[in-house]
Amino acid sequence: MVLLDAPKLLLAWVLAACVVVAVPAATGEAAKRKRTDGCAHADLQPAAHNLAQVRAAVLCLHNRERQAHGLPALRQNAKLRRAAQGHSDDMVVARYFAHDSLSGAAMADRILRTGYARGRGWSLGENLAWGTGSLATAAEIQRAWMESPGHRANILRRQFREIGIGIAVGVPVDLGGQAGATYTADFGVRR
């Protein structure tokens, strides 16, 4: 999770730990249904042919959380999406997982290069995640983000009004061909 404001810059890095908890099947299924109610395709395995549906599920899940907290819905922004998709693709191809690209471009550099804020004041944030198997679905990525304070803060930041979601099929590490997906969510507001 990274958060930047212009002209004042604030960087915050959050590393999330994975915790495994055994839950009875009935309780686990009920919790899963509750997390995805009203958001089509939230449990869909990302694949090249369905990424638009998975992106829509991520947006739906984010906006459902925001609505539950009395916050305005996020709107999709094509420039934020271009930055997010490019970063997800780059992480998978170049096999790294970080907010800064291997070329040294920071999150703000990547987003501003799209023309997102052109001479205006702005605030930006970014969430990254990757998962394999059932952990690669929009519902599981959303769950992980909401359980991480920094990522949750980006999703629920009142100031943010726009989002770009990039999902690449594949993961940023070599797992011997195991299927998965890498997510970037770029948040923004222009003043």
Structure description:
This protein has 191 residues and is of the alpha+beta class. It is built from six helices and five strands. A five-stranded mixed β-sheet has the order 1-3-5-4-2. Helix 2 runs parallel beside helix 5. The longest helix is centred in the N-terminal third of the chain and has 18 residues. About 12% of the residues have low confidence.
Spatially, the strands of the biggest sheet line up as 1-3-5-4-2
Overall outline: globular
Portion of residues in beta strands equals 15-25%
Q: What class do helices, strands and sheet pairing give?
A: alpha+beta
Number of E strands = 5
Number of helices in the DSSP assignment = 6
Biggest sheet features: 5 strands, mixed
Helix content: 25-40%
Distance between the termini: 22 Å
* Nearest-integer average pLDDT: 85
Radius of gyration equals 16 Å
Element string (H = helix, E = strand):
EHHEHHEHHEE
Low-confidence stretches: 6-28
List its salient traits.
alpha+beta; five-stranded mixed beta sheet; 5 strands; 36% helix; 191 residues; single chain
Q: What is the topology?
A:
Layout: E1 2-5, H1 25-36, H2 51-68, E2 75-76, H3 78-94, H4 107-112, E3 122-132, H5 138-146, H6 149-155, E4 162-169, E5 180-190
Parallel strand pairs: 2-4
Antiparallel strand pairs: 1-3, 3-5, 4-5
Helix pairs in contact: 2-5
In short:
With 191 residues, this protein is of the alpha+beta class. The protein is 36% helix and 19% strand.
